[in-house]
Specification:
- By secondary structure, the chain is α+β, with helices and mostly antiparallel strands.
- The chain contains 7 helices and 10 strands.
- It has one domain.
- Strand 8 and strand 9 form a beta hairpin.
- It is globular.
């Protein structure tokens, strides 16, 4: 059974789509015909087609320009991109691989010897995952890989290694990282994985998610690396559904 994916997309932000949730819409508790995943206990399945909405381009531009003015001293550049453009490139990474990528980044902060201990290992226990990720968050920018580990879901096209925490265009507080520095971190982490376990790089996006930690992380990192390369080449934001 195929695994659910985490989407990564290089595009202007007006191309983000949100599911319109209507509590009064008709629903059933039975999965619809053709549902290929296990039933979800307590889930509601809408009987009408899902509706989506996207932010208005002018709202994104107004929000971006306000952010650019406020953070100009920290960024040292004008925060700007071609928001009206409809270009996009997207790929999905397996949910488990995306999580293990962050786990591997957290372990790699502790040095090559700790990363080497993951060679041949399969998925760690939830408590081990939580402890590693919590520790990485506590280290903040004093640790490696902040763009991967500190909870950003949108990376904007600026050069400074910075994460901005501000309300987005909907008024919801979010974290915004640097697409350029995320690309650097993914490249560095991939080099560390390859050095620790050359066998892990045999995995490709066409194969099922590897059972071993480093193989799964390598597979997910390939997806992110490809979308990062597009985002930086196009001077475009990068965002994830994860």
């Amino acid at each position: 059974m195929p695994e659910l994916g985490v989407g990564y997309q290089a595009s202007a932000l007006h191309l983000i789509s949100y599911l319109v949730v209507d509590a009064k819409a008709p629903y059933t508790t039975e999965p619809p015909p053709g549902w290929k995943l296990p039933p979800i206990p307590g889930a509601r399945y809408m009987t009408e087609p899902a509706r989506f909405r996207s932010p208005a381009t002018e709202d994104i531009i107004a929000w971006r320009d306000k952010l650019a003015t406020k953070y100009a001293p920290q960024l040292g550049e004008l925060l700007s991109w071609d928001e009206p453009r409809d270009f996009y490139k997207s790929e999905d990474a397996a949910v488990s691989g995306d999580l293990l990528l962050r786990y591997v980044a957290a372990v790699a902060q502790q040095g090559a010897d700790e990363l080497a201990k993951l060679v041949g290992r399969q998925k760690p226990a939830q408590e081990e995952l939580r402890r590693a990720l919590d520790g990485a968050i506590q280290r903040g920018f004093t640790g490696r890989f902040p763009q991967i580990l500190l909870g950003a879901q949108i990376w904007l096209p600026f050069q400074r290694n910075l994460i901005i925490e501000e309300p987005d265009w909907q008024g919801k507080t979010n974290r915004f990282g640097s697409a350029y520095r995320l690309e650097d971190e993914v490249r560095e982490l991939r080099a560390a994985i390859k050095k620790a376990d050359p066998q892990s790089v045999q995995w490709t996006s066409e194969r099922e998610v590897p059972e071993q930690i480093l193989g799964a992380a390598w597979q997910a990192s390939g997806t992110i690396a490809r979308i990062c390369a597009v985002a930086t080449a196009q001077h475009s934001p990068l965002w994830t559904t994860g």
